[in-house]
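F.,

This is the one I mentioned.
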């Protein structure tokens, strides 16, 4: 098994970053169109019509503002995404763990590259 593990830092408050991870309208600005709700058991989709991509999700963990976890299933990918947040000295640390990849293949590398790019968009949204 292979896991994507990425760390990011923001000068925004932990609550502002949490909101960007859990508010459907804000998520649409940096990930994809969606019908996400931060409610355990909620089933939703992230959609990118441009790429003909639909990702099915089910919310697994909501521990505001520290942990958010959901399934991420689309195409060859059947994984779990977990965001972990902590705030220290005015900096919010955001850790992304995407687990369940069979190996470090195209899907794994695509996810790693994709999340890094999307978080760059998130930085703009938070600015």
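My design for it:
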């Amino acid at each position: 098994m292979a896991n994507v593990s990425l760390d990011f830092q923001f000068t925004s408050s932990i609550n502002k970053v949490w909101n960007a991870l859990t508010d459907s309208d804000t998520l649409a600005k940096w990930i994809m169109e969606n019908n996400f709700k931060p409610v355990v058991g909620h089933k939703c989709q992230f959609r990118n019509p441009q790429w003909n991509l639909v990702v099915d999700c089910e919310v697994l963990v909501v521990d505001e503002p520290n942990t958010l976890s959901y399934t991420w299933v689309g195409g060859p990918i059947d994984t779990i995404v977990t965001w972990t947040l902590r705030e220290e000295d005015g900096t919010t640390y955001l850790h992304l763990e995407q687990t369940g990849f069979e190996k470090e293949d195209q899907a794994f590398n695509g996810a790693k590259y994709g999340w890094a790019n999307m978080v760059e968009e998130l930085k703009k949204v938070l600015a």
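The mean pLDDT is 96.

Talk soon.
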